[in-house]
């Protein structure tokens, strides 16, 4: 049973669950963090097109008031406003470190959460046979030297986006994520080493596991003038759990110079019923998300200047509210880019408008920018991928890569 688990998953996570641990290529200064909002967040509420007449007309109960009014949007420009619950992120916009790409998403028209998430994580929309995730392919394509903690997945299960041949370290959730586990016991390690002495793949996996866990533990134990007291998370409401986990992830990235890639996911965005506007269900979740993303930047500390954070979701939601005061599965959405290298303070993307003729299937914001067209310049200009390497990360990708000269600072 143990042998089969090790073969299938490679090692043990910091949270105590099986997962593979990286033995790829090493330390680098430029970093990428991907945050997937599972459940299809309503991008028309995140960055609301208040300047479009059809926006308020289509959402009589859930449209956000324009900037300047009670519970109004935070003005970004003459067309778009940021949801007021995301106020913690406004300083990043004002500081030129937050940008958005609207009317973006997957070119595949599916409205299935399962399929759409699979396509976003595999990087091959419309093709279910892809065996690995695009961040795993990215890991093998990056230049640099090996390190057991070059890539970190935060969560309780291995995500599709990191599935593949390259191994990935895993960080659990909650205050117990950094606690010692059985695998950290030197006697158990020695016993397993003897057990798998004649099985080269398992023996290598075991070494990667123990080395990676040791490296992360040493990084987090380094003094920084502030105690990371696990009890600070005790009893925290679920809406705040992401903030604690995000800061922990950011701190680990900052304190381990080998970590270059990281992934985490946040659920709960399928707001079919009682979505709310400036207050209510969606507003509460966005407030937790905004707090968490800001906490991630604080955890990153001085490495924030070299980090790009990408936030995306599998698809958007309908323009018109439904009969239950919510929104249904849609198409176009908004991507977020946050970090020191980001040319922020702008909403990019080819905006199609919200009039009936412009809507996809007569009901949804159209997708005018393939999500890979946003990711590609980040991988090339920020992480240094060559054209040939990019083609392995996004095979059969779009014919052109857009915004290469506008997303990131020169």
Q: What's the alpha carbon Rg, rounded to whole Å?
A: 21 Å
- The SSE order reads HEEEHEHEEHEHHEEHHHEHEEEEHH
> Into which percent range does the helicity of residues fall?
25-40%
Based on the coordinates given, report the CATH architecture: 3-Layer(aba) Sandwich
Number of strands: 14
Strand content: 5-15%
Describe it for me?
It is a single chain. The protein is an alpha/beta fold and 410 residues long. It has one domain (25-180, 240-393): Alkaline Phosphatase, subunit A, CATH 3.40.720. Helices cover 31% and strands 14% of the residues. The protein is built from twelve helices and 14 strands. It has helices at 2-9, 43-46, 53-58, 90-94, 113-122, 134-141, 186-195, 200-221, 241-255, 281-300, 371-382, 387-393; strands at residues 11-12, 18-19, 31-37, 47-48, 74-75, 81-82, 98-105, 151-154, 169-171, 261-266, 307-313, 333-338, 346-348, 369-370. Strands 3, 7, 8, 9, 10, 11, 12, 13 and 14 form a nine-stranded mixed β-sheet that branches. Strands 4-6-5 form a three-stranded antiparallel β-sheet. The chain has a two-stranded antiparallel sheet with strand order 1-2. A hairpin with a 5-residue loop joins strand 1 (11-12) and strand 2 (18-19). Helix 6 (134-141) runs antiparallel to helix 12 (387-393) and helix 9 runs parallel beside helix 10. The N and C termini lie far apart (52 Å). Mean pLDDT is 84; it is low at 1-28 and 215-239. This is DUF1501 domain-containing protein. InterPro entries: DUF1501.
